[in-house]
Specification:
It is a single chain. The protein has 179 residues and is an alpha/beta fold. The longest helix has 13 residues. Strands 1-3-2-4-5-6 form a 6-stranded mixed sheet, sandwiched between helices. The termini are far apart. The relative contact order is 0.17.
């Protein structure tokens, strides 16, 4: 039986606000992280489409192609975000219309007990195509700073070269388990 996902938009976005998709990946059934992200982004003046939990890769990609977001936010709480994220970013970047769409991942990305993650894991995710990595144990301000550096309607960062998010001080961004 095929799983149905409701897609809802909420918030009172500013005209210059971003169009943002927030979602988990296929293996992650957690939703409170998505609710938090949605409310945070709406409070910042952005329009949010929350795809919900356990989103199959194909649905995530097709919805992002349909919505044409300015930002895609992938959140993981179950600890499988690193491996799921590598698979998902490859599928997103394989689509020409999403190849340059700013995409971030965060939350609990590993089950190895290292807490806020490792620089090697963050570098691997950035090299794979993510524009920001926000692991548990960091600051919400890093995520807000990254989002604030984007402009609505551009659907792309300037020349993607695995650049680290704004305010990262040359290190991959680390943020709370909010993602």
């Amino acid at each position: 039986m095929e799983q149905q996902h409701a897609v809802e938009q909420h918030g009172k976005a500013e005209p210059a606000g971003l169009e943002v998709v927030v979602t988990t990946m296929a293996s992650d059934s957690h939703t409170w992280n998505l609710v938090f992200l949605q409310l945070l982004l709406e409070e910042l003046g952005h329009r949010v489409t929350n795809l919900g939990a356990c989103v199959p890769d194909e649905l995530l990609v097709s919805e992002c192609c349909r919505i044409e977001p300015d930002l895609i936010v992938l959140s993981s709480v179950n600890g499988h975000g690193f491996h799921d994220g590598l698979r998902v970013i490859a599928a997103l970047r394989a689509r020409p219309e999403l190849a340059r769409t700013p995409t971030v991942i965060g939350g609990k990305l590993g089950i190895d007990g290292t807490g806020s993650g490792t620089p090697a894991r963050q570098r691997t995710l950035l090299t794979a195509g993510f524009d920001g990595v926000f692991e548990e144990g960091g600051s919400v301000l890093d995520f807000q700073s990254f989002v604030g550096s984007l402009s609505a309607g551009s659907r792309a960062l300037p020349a993607r070269t695995g650049a680290l998010p704004a305010g990262s001080g040359g290190q991959p961004a680390r943020s709370g388990a909010l993602l």
